């Protein structure tokens, strides 16, 4: 069909990850993607975006704040109709999961 924008699964994943880069951890000042907190993102045919993520520590006081920010960021994407966040603790988050950008920003070699 002409005039219809067909987005591949990889392009949609990139679009979602780009939106998630706007979600900044207020304690560290780095976005959750570069911190390595996002393990997986999926968008099904009904527009449900499932985000598998972790936090730097169990019992993180920012859980609700980050969930709200994630929902706001991802819902800006027209293809997304709903967001489900699956908080997982395995694999456990470690500083090695951070991007080079995040490690440099935080002064970690």
Automatic annotation (TrEMBL):
Residues 13-86 form the MIP18 family-like domain. This is Metal-sulfur cluster assembly factor. It comes from the Bacteria.
């Amino acid at each position: 069909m002409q005039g219809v924008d067909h987005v591949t699964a990889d392009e949609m994943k990139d679009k979602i990850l780009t939106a998630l880069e706007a979600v900044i951890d207020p304690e560290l000042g780095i976005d959750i993607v570069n911190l390595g907190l996002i393990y997986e993102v999926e968008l099904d045919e009904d527009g449900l975006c499932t985000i598998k993520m972790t936090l730097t520590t169990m019992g993180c006081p920012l859980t609700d704040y980050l969930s709200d920010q994630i929902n706001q960021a991802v819902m800006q994407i027209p293809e997304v109709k709903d967001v489900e966040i699956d908080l997982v603790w395995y694999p456990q988050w470690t500083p090695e999961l951070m991007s080079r950008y995040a490690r440099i920003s935080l002064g970690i070699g």
